[in-house]
Amino acid sequence: MAPATGDDAPDSDRASDAASRPPVAAALDEFDDGLAESVASSLTGRSDVVVVGVPLALLPPILAARDETTGGTWRVACRPGAVEPLARALVLGTAVAEAVATGSLELRTAADLGPRSGALGGARTCFASADRVDAVAGPASARTLVTEETAERVAAAGRAVRDRFASATPATVGMPARSRLLATAAETLDDRFATDLAAALDALPYGALGRSGDLTDRTLLVALAARHDHLLWDLRRWISGETQPAGGAREGGDGTRREAERVGVAAGQDLTDDRRRLVRRGLIEAIKVPVGDGRPRLRLRAVDDALLRATPTEVLSVLRGRFALPVDEDGRVESPPGSDGRRPVWERTRRGKN
């Protein structure tokens, strides 16, 4: 999870940081790292786990524990509103979707978490298995994990947890599974792009990127594609599953023509602003190239040395550094102090065309 803002920062600075962070990153900070570590440690190695009342912030430790545990399917019922943000969280969403696709998790959403009778009722977050039941307890500022291992109480509390899960509604993650995302990336674009994307996603914190602001998960995808000179049209086709025109299907290894599989990360047209911001900051260019008998298409090409030299795991850092620089009214990086503001002729001729 993203580190908390230091206590010595002014209140106005902390408010500004919170406002600018992706919503998923803010939600992941609902609980401190100590509780997340306790949850992961408690669940690792247990079988037939049933979890209810799960907020978005506890999905990462549940995933971490599940990755370290073999066999069976864990049943997880989230709080209302906890699953929907996964459709806008590329890193966390694809990880949860992968766990569901492989049968590691069965995901549901509670329809009603109103007050109920019983020690472990209501909206409390509870974790049950055959020999123990854990629950998140305490005030919001000092959450902790409490455990019950007395056989009689475990049996009663376990039944209550399983009943809560049974009453929940099956949930759909609005992201493709990570393995499917990468397989279709290799199919529609190429293995180099898929390898870069896999490395970047594995290295990124779950809340690293969102869908708001100048730098989004779509910006990262455009930058990665530009490092390998891909057509914007191909990137759009992969990211949203746009239908290809007749005769434009990609030829597979078996010689057949087939459509790209839909991955549903974002709408293809949403890439336009991200591409323009990257062009205006001098990171990439978009060049019109002829393709077959149709109209010219834009080929993405990285032109910034730092972006080209970066490893896949360093690309986001390069983007953040450039996006932190001041820009002029056209969205282009301002000339450094002492320069005369003139642009090379090759930049002046392309100004505003991308």
Salient structural properties:
single chain, 354 residues, 2 domains, 38% helix, disordered N terminus
Description of the structure:
By secondary structure, the chain is an alpha+beta fold. The protein has 2 domains: 153 residues, Endonuclease, Chain A, CATH 3.30.870; 171 residues, no CATH class. 38% of the residues lie in helices and 13% in strands. The chain has 14 helices and 11 strands. It has a 7-stranded mixed beta sheet, with helices on both faces. Helix 4 links the parallel strand 1 and strand 2. The chain is elongated and about 70 Å long. The two termini are 36 Å apart. The N terminus and C terminus are likely disordered.
Mean pLDDT across the residues is 83
Report, as a whole number of angstroms, the end-to-end distance. 36 Å
- What is the global morphology? elongated
Q: How many β-strand stretches?
A: 11
- Total count of domains: 2
Strand order of the biggest β-sheet: 6-5-4-1-2-3-7
Discrete helix count: 14
Unreliable segments (pLDDT under 50, ≥5 consecutive)? 1-19, 115-121, 243-261, 345-352
Rg estimate, integer Å: 24 Å
SSE pattern, N- to C-terminal? HHHEHEHEEEEHEHHHHEEHEEHHH
Taking the sheet with the most strands, its summary is: 7 strands, mixed
Tell me the β content: 5-15%
Q: What share of the residues lie within helices?
A: 25-40%
Classification by helices and strands: alpha+beta
